[in-house]
Every structure is written in C-alpha cells, then in structure tokens.
Design goal:
The protein contains 15 helices and seven strands. It is of the alpha/beta class. The chain folds into three domains: 116 residues, P-loop containing nucleotide triphosphate hydrolases (Rossmann fold); 63 residues, Orthogonal Bundle (Helicase, Ruva Protein, domain 3), CATH 1.10.8.60; 125 residues, Up-down Bundle (Zinc Finger, Delta Prime, domain 3). A five-stranded parallel sheet has the order 2-3-4-1-5, with helices on both faces. The protein has a two-stranded parallel ribbon with strand order 6-7. Helix 11 packs antiparallel against helix 12.
C-alpha cells in the first residue's frame, strides 16, 4: 500500500490474505492518525447510503482519512446508487477499502474502477496446495513445519484455512519456546480438541461480540466437546488480556507488556492489540461470570441448570 489509491475492493475466499489486508489498513491508519484512526463499517448493519454520507462529511484532522467497509457482499446492487455517486467524487486525502467475501458484485468493481481505485482478488489455495500454505503460515508464526507434518495436519483437520490457521497457532503456543514442529508434534497436539475455538471464543468475549460467541459455542458443541472443557482456556485467555490491559493503563511499554505476558512474539502482539480495545471493567465482569459458572457446574451454585444452558447464559452475561 505504498502508493495509495483512493479506493480498493478486496474480495475472494482466501481468509488469511483478506485478514492480512484488513490488518495492514488498520496499522497504517493508526500509525498515521493514532488509535481509532480507521473508520470501520459493517455492511450487514450499515447500508451504502450511510457510508456515502460518511464519505461526504468534513474532517478537520490533517492527513489521509481511512474508511473500511467489511462484508460489502451483504449489500444488494439496488442499494448502491448513493455510494456510487459518492465514490465518483471522493474527497482528496480519502481512502475507501471495501472488503467482500467470495465474488464481489460487478457494480462494486465498476464503482472502484471509476473512482481510480484498484481491485484485489484473494483466491484461496487449491486443496492440494494447502500443505505448502501451512508451511508458509507456520513460518509467519515463527514455526518451522516440515512438509510431512504439513500434509499430516491437512489430513487431520481438513483444508479449511481458518481451522488450519487456528491449529497452527495452537501448535506454536504449545511448543513455545521451541520453533520446530514435526509430524509427531502434529499427531500429539492437533487432535481436534476445542482449544483453538476456546481462544476464539475468549477473544469474542473481549470484543463484546455476543453473536460471534454463540456461533463459536455452537461450533464447539457440534465438535462433540462439552462446555466445561473450554472454561479453563477461556478464563486463561481473559486473564491474559486483562493483565495486558492493566499494564497498558499504567503506562508500561508494549515491549515490557509482551515480556510480562510471555508466549510467542506474534501472540503477545495479538494480545496487546486486543487489550488496547478492551474494556477493563467488562473483562473483570466476564472473569467473575466464569468463576460463578465453574462453581455452578461443580454443583455449588444456586442455579440448577444443565451444562449447555448454564454456559449459554454465562456467555450472554459476560458479553453484555
């Protein structure tokens, strides 16, 4: 993104590449404009006219203004007219990024092209290319994964990128400080348990995203895992982010925060990013909720609920 265009359409089915694109835009916006420098919109909850209005609004801050729309594929072509008009005359020093999963509408392609922008298609690797993708993704996590281990991992968990990425993150965490993963490590550690989903669930709680919490909880249940097995992973992750929040609030540098929370550098960076957006009081409430849940599941609480119901209620309370 060295030479910026006024508009970008990023679409396709390579989740990792799309997430990387989103991350680069956010980092650039926050590096130039500070925290909150990226204006974000969810197309599932925001119609094109609202984005068009935002584009037309005046900004008295110096520098480039960055706006990002997620899930632009949720819009219908009949809704796009206000946005098309706004994009035909984008204000100077404005960058609009539209992200769409899968194939984007032709109308979005045309609007971006007419604005002098650029379309980037992020096509997912073919199934037979996934072992190579795993090796490359592992390298990004600071892990050397040999070719046989990569093939075994794909055979074990399937060719889904998000699942493979979670399994690789789990391997990196479990093996740290070692930086090499063998086929034996994959067989021993990537058994398909709920651990990666539990970390994702904790991150959704940190973000206060109840919909994501319930979706991931359903995935855990569909995988045959009991909620009680996920509680330890969830609370560990919540405590980790809470500790980072507490250190950041008293002015500790990111480098020292990373050293205090430990783990691989990429995970510490991810934790700090979560912590900067987290609400400390909300984290403390969530930790209390899960402490109560653990007591209830052991039969020591006042509520006599089945495990699934108690877990769902705890998620709703913790994410509120």
């Amino acid at each position: 993104m060295a030479d910026l265009k006024p508009a970008y359409l990023v679409h396709g089915d390579d989740d990792a590449k799309i997430d990387a694109w989103r991350g680069r835009v956010r980092r650039r916006a926050e590096d130039e404009r500070g925290p909150g420098g990226l204006e974000t919109f969810d197309a599932r909850a925001t119609d094109p006219a609202e984005v068009a209005t935002a584009l037309a609004s005046l900004s008295f801050d110096p520098g480039i203004r960055y706006l990002l729309v997620d899930d632009a594929g949720a819009w219908k072509a009949s809704q796009l007219a206000p946005l098309e008009q706004a994009m035909a005359d984008l204000p100077e020093a404005t960058v609009l990024v539209l992200i769409a999963r899968g194939k984007a509408m032709k109308a979005l392609h045309k609007a971006v092209a007419d604005a002098g922008g650029e379309v980037r298609e992020c096509a997912a690797p073919k199934p037979w290319e996934m072992p190579k993708w795993c090796v490359e993704r592992a390298r990004e996590l600071g892990l050397v994964l040999d070719s046989q281990a990569a093939k075994d991992l794909v055979s074990l968990v399937g060719a889904g990128q998000q699942r493979l990425s979670r399994e690789l993150e789990k391997l990196a965490i479990a093996l740290h400080p070692a930086t090499t993963a063998t086929a034996e490590d994959v067989e021993r550690l990537s058994s398909g348990d709920a651990s990666p989903q539990a970390y994702d669930l904790a991150d959704a709680l940190v973000a206060g995203d109840l919909r994501a919490c319930m979706t991931i909880a359903d995935e855990i249940e569909a995988h045959g895992e009991r909620p009680s097995r996920a509680i330890y992973r969830i609370t560990s992750r919540l405590r980790e982010v809470h500790r980072a929040v507490a250190l950041i609030e008293i002015g500790v540098s990111e480098q020292k925060v990373a050293g205090a929370i430990g783990g691989p550098p990429w995970l510490a960076k991810k934790t700090i990013a979560r912590a900067r957006k987290a609400d400390r009081a909300g984290l403390e409430r969530a930790l209390c909720v899960f402490a109560d849940l653990e007591v209830n599941m052991r039969g020591g609480g006042e509520l006599q609920l089945d495990e699934d119901t108690a877990f769902s209620l705890a998620l709703a309370r913790a994410a509120a």
